[in-house]
């Protein structure tokens, strides 16, 4: 903000300097014309003063508009940075949930996303200790209870992802990683985060 105030002060100072130049020019022209016609010189001088005053006022008005726009843009950038930072933290915050909450979320995602047929559950490296064969078996039981024909098994390998898992079937791969969810829903999340964070 301090830099913006200095910019505005400089613009106003330049406007006043231009006005002073116009006034000096008017004075010089008036002096040259004084011998020819005192009345004409007075008219020219008054018109020059009016023009200089209007020019200074216009420069000052433009400087104020420029400052207002710069301030507004700086505020919008700061708010956008806050929203982006918070959205960037979402995967870490999800992973920071208790095991019970986190696994309930992973289980729901697995049930909602599992395709038909044989499905391999490939876990993100940070979740290898959390998403285990017991969870996959619990999901398998839930799917069977719902009449869904999905056979899930835990893959032996892991992926370098922030968290979550990928479901691999013969014809499809469903990315349920935290990175993919955030990327897919980022446009929808941004306004919600902005409203929660900034009240608008």
Q: Could you provide a short overview of the structure?
A:
With 200 residues, this protein is an alpha+beta fold.
Walk me through this protein's architecture:
- The chain is 70% helix and 14% strand.
- The chain is of the alpha+beta class and 200 residues long.
- Strands 2-1-3-4 form a four-stranded mixed beta sheet.
- Helix 1 runs antiparallel to helix 2 and helix 2 crosses helix 5.
Helicity range: 55-70%
Mean pLDDT: 76
Total count of strands: 4
Q: Can you summarize the main beta sheet?
A: 4 strands, mixed
User: What is the overall silhouette?
Assistant: rod-shaped
Query: What is the element string, with H for helices and E for strands?
Result: HHHEHEEEH
- Supply the number of helical segments: 5
Rounded to an integer, what's the Rg over CA atoms?
A: 35 Å
Stretches with pLDDT under 50, minimum 5 residues? none
Q: Give the end-to-end Cα distance, rounded to a whole number of Å.
A: 23 Å
Order of the strands making up the biggest sheet? 2-1-3-4
Which structural category fits the helices and strands? alpha+beta
Strand content: 5-15%
